[in-house]
Amino acid sequence: MPEIAVFATDLHGEIQNYERLLDVSSGKKVGAVIIGGDIAPFLSAIGDIATYQREFIEFYLIPRMKEFRRKTKKDVFIMMGNDDVKINMGLLKSGEKKGAFKLLNQKVHRIGDKFLAGYSYINEAPFLIKDWEKDEKDIKADLSKLAKLSDPKKTIYSMHAPPLGTNLDVIFSGEHVGSSAIRDFIIEKQPYMTLHGHIHESSHMTGNWKDVLGDSVSVNPGKGNILVFDLDDLKTMNVLIA
Ligand SMILES: [Zn+2]
């Protein structure tokens, strides 16, 4: 039986989009749910961002994912993105210990007969939170370590930043702002598949949520949208628009 995986990114604490994701993921054939960064809300009317994000993780994300996993027995994989403050990583780790999800950043897990690895860091950008920013040289070094943990040709990489110069990294001005280290990594290692987010508007700008570098298929479904794909057949994948 084909195993279906579901990927969403840049949910930014929007409960409506989380609930829609879990609804789609409840389908019988779905084996795994992957959440690719920028998980917590960004704007807050009062209080500081770390507290606001902590409350979202503690009172919604962890109990909700725990309940979903208990009911469905499906795997949930999650990682932070550049808009998630790092100080709450301890809380996410406690969620992992409680069985709510498995953490992805710089780790490898089994998914069907493939591997799933994650990478939260983005290349330098003019945003407020700097917790998950690195220069291209350091991203390159991290990715070469990550590539040693599994066979890239059998691995799906969830990387928050998209590869530079593709359909997946175009901002409103028309400029490409993705990571050159991520692009080089894909060209050199030829992963089975890569999943991205971060640039919410890119699929609107380019008219494409998919791109191909060599034999590697890369997707950035856009903020809150849901990618549904067959782990063994990437030709049939589909994006459900939020
Ligand atoms: Zn985002």
What features would you describe in this structure?
There is one protein chain. With 242 residues, the protein is an alpha/beta fold. The protein has helices at residues 15-25, 49-72, 89-97, 136-146, 180-189, 202-206, and strands spanning 4-8, 30-36, 75-79, 102-103, 108-111, 114-119, 122-123, 133-134, 155-159, 193-195, 210-213, 216-219, 226-230, 233-240. The strands form 3 sheets. The protein has a 6-stranded mixed sheet, with helices on one face. A 6-stranded mixed sheet has the order 5-6-9-10-12-11, covered by helices on one side. The chain binds zinc ion. The site of zinc ion has 7 residues, from loops. Zinc ion binds next to loops.
Percentage of residues assigned to helices? 25-40%
User: N-to-C terminal Cα separation, in Å?
Assistant: 28 Å
Which compounds are bound in this model?
Answer: zinc ion
| Strand residues, percent | 25-35%
Assign an overall shape. Answer: globular
Secondary-structure-derived class: alpha/beta
Enumerate how many helices there are, as a single number.
Answer: 6
